[in-house]
Amino acid sequence: MPPRVWRGLPPPRQSRLFPKGIFRMRSPVRFVFVLHDHQPVGNFDGVIEQAYRDSYLPVLDLVERHAGIRLAIHTSGPLAEWLDRHHPDYLDRLARLVAAGRLEIVGGAFYEPILAMLPSQDRIGQIRRYNEWLERRLSAKVSGMWVAERVWDPGMVRDLAAAGVGWTILDDFHFKAAGLAEEELDRYWLTEGDGSTLPVFPVSEHLRYVIPFAAPHATIDHLAFLASRRENAVAVFGDDGEKFGVWPDTFKTVFEERWLETFFGLLEHNRDWIRMSLPSEVIRDLPPAGTVWLPECSYREMTTWVLPPKEQEAVVAAKAACDADERLRGISRFIRGGTWRNFRLRYAEANEMYARMMAVSRRIDAIRRASVETGSTAHVIDAEALSTAIECLYRGQCNCAYWHGAFGGIYLPHLRNAVYRELIAADIACDQATGRGGSWVDVATDDHDFDGRPEVRLSNDALDVWIAGSKGGMIYELDLKAQRHNLLATLDRRPEAYHSQVLAGPGAARSVVDASQMARFKQEGLERMVRYDLYRRKSLVDHFYDLDIPAAAVMETTAMERGSFAAAAYEAVVRRNPDRIQVLLSHDGNAWGIPFTLSKAITLEAGSRVIEIAYKLERLPRDFRQHFAVEFNFAGMPAAAAGRFFHDGTGRELGELGSRLDLGDVRAIGLVDDWLDIDATLSISRPSGLWTFPINSVSQSEGGFELVHQSVVVMPHWIVTPDADGCWRVNMRLSLDSHRDTDRIPRQTRAAAFAT
Q: Kind and range of the H or E element at 413?
């Protein structure tokens, strides 16, 4: 966001430009003003309500008061549904503006996915379903669509056309990347793919940066320049509606200092040459400038954010060098970073969500195909359950948790949890649609996460356990179906380009990556809290440490790995019984150079909410003495919150879930979350030491830099010495109960059960 320079002026009585004759008008300029209002699936009601009060409502109030203002609005599906539940009068007012010809409703994919990451059938399905909803609710004909984050792929044209899309808008950055000059971007263009064409408006980056951050006259000046340069020029502003009141300091600028009131007054005063136009009117009245084939692209900032930190800085530096050199200034527009898809490379967690989403999408598609092939849909599937599965899938495709830029995105646990909640619910609905019920257990081995190596999905009617043998034999997803919750929706701590700004502390200069970003610290001491993880924060991660390692070294990620197991490739073998399936993982590795075999077995029974875990170290020399630890992570169970705490299995609470515990002679440790109705208890067959500590990331959000709780580590550890056969063994049971159910059982009884 550029620095705020507007300080407030009264609404002008006349334009300051044209009495002075600065520009000579060729013809009126058509000004297309598009707002994109969005709230992600899973966002807190209070946050959305505040955005409604600070932005959506006051903007609508001003539009209604200024009869000369005409605009287009895209309200994302999650927000539209929320408004329909909480403020239906707002949607009714939009419908009246549509009927008056002052507002065009812009459609889109229902739950604001990145279209480029979706299979074709989901792209088309999301767009059609939302257009039908909008037309039914607002009595509006929807012809255009908003492309989420303007992430464009040329292969989408055919699907958009098939979904009935009549036009869309993208950034002028896309057009410049295709080779068009600045003076060619005051018109709309056609693009083509697989024989289908689509009108596309270029959104002015200049207007994105001056509205509402420069004085209102700056936009009028720019429109005057366009009007003087070409007949029938078209200027398009399209950006987040939240920048009018929700972004930092903008409520003061836009409403208290009357920026928007002044701007609307200027537009109305100059209506003899500024013609506020709806997008569909421009397409109806004017021909396209031509046909252009746009590359895979997004807005300029997004192509930078997707890169690793050093590469982000390199792209910014290269562009600055070109802009500063008159000989190179012309090629600056061709400098861009990476493709949005590679957020899945930067963040393994994004790829895990994507892979989970694709598994659900493929399953739904298979159910559809099977029902068509049988020719008897009504008898093969439960159509209502299938419709629920599709809706949950679409909600789980909401884009915000899949990436990170200026806002929190993937760093926000509640957004990741919401994605998994919907995808788990979709899978459950698929079970209902196909008549799968009762107690069952199943296993599937496939390349679930698209890394070229197989993963194992171990499932029953209560749990889904996803195991990556090639990545340390870890459990990387653990779904509790009753709670619709993934206990391993964790996030590893990794370098970010803005961390240099954080490490410099309060008072630091602007970001080296985005000069518009000031250093705002939402908490004290963040510069001392930046940590990076050397391995995945998942479960069954196997560590070997120094014998006398202090707990603080493990908790602060300064402990040295002395074994080769934490990220090793384990061989996976599946053993089946009718009601019981075991995945056996083994790796020949070493600790301190001493070779041995580590095996671990993960067993799940039909109808059970217990995961049985057995470890065996074998081929140990007689004098073997090593410090062995097994890491578990639990995500979505916040620290320092009421109703969330550790217990020892006997009824004694040990502290809230952010507690740093260093315990000895432990047989059981439990984590309770009353909000989620979870009691996760780990019982251990032989006494262990036990460490617990929180994983907190320092990340960037729209409000500034902040500390975010990502997961809690539970790590039993032992000094391993071999038995007479050169082996060492331990068994563990992870019981994933409903807290309300287990609360009816005396904790002493449960503790006795854990010890047997």
A: helix 413-433
Q: Is 731 within a domain?
A: yes
Candidate from 73-82, 494-503, 513-522, 581-590 with smallest mean pLDDT: 513-522
Q: What is the pLDDT of residues 389-417, one digit of tens each?
A: 999 999 999 999 999 998 999 999 999 99
CATH number of 745's domain: 2.70.98.10
| All residues at 6 or more sequence positions from 683 whose CB lies less than 8 Å from its CB, including other chains | 649, 667, 668, 732, 733, 735, 754, 755
Token output for 160: 């958009």
Residue 212: cis peptide before it, omega within 30 degrees of 0: yes
Q: What is the CATH number of the domain that holds 293?
A: 3.20.110.20
Q: Residue 741 is encoded by which pair of tokens?
A: 């159910």
Single residue among 280, 298, 316 that ends a domain in this structure? 298
Domain containing residue 199:
18-298
Assigned domain for 385 exists: no
* pLDDT at site 9: 44
Distance of CA 689 to the CA centre of its chain: 36
pLDDT digits (tens, 9 = 90+) for 628-677: 999 999 999 999 999 999 999 887 999 999 999 999 999 999 999 999 99
Number of domains in the chain: 2
Residue 191 near residue 197, CB atoms below 8 Å = yes
Q: What angle do CA 299, 300, 305 make, to 5 degrees?
A: 100
> Is 50 among the domain residues?
yes
* CA atoms of 653 and 89, how far apart (whole Å): 48
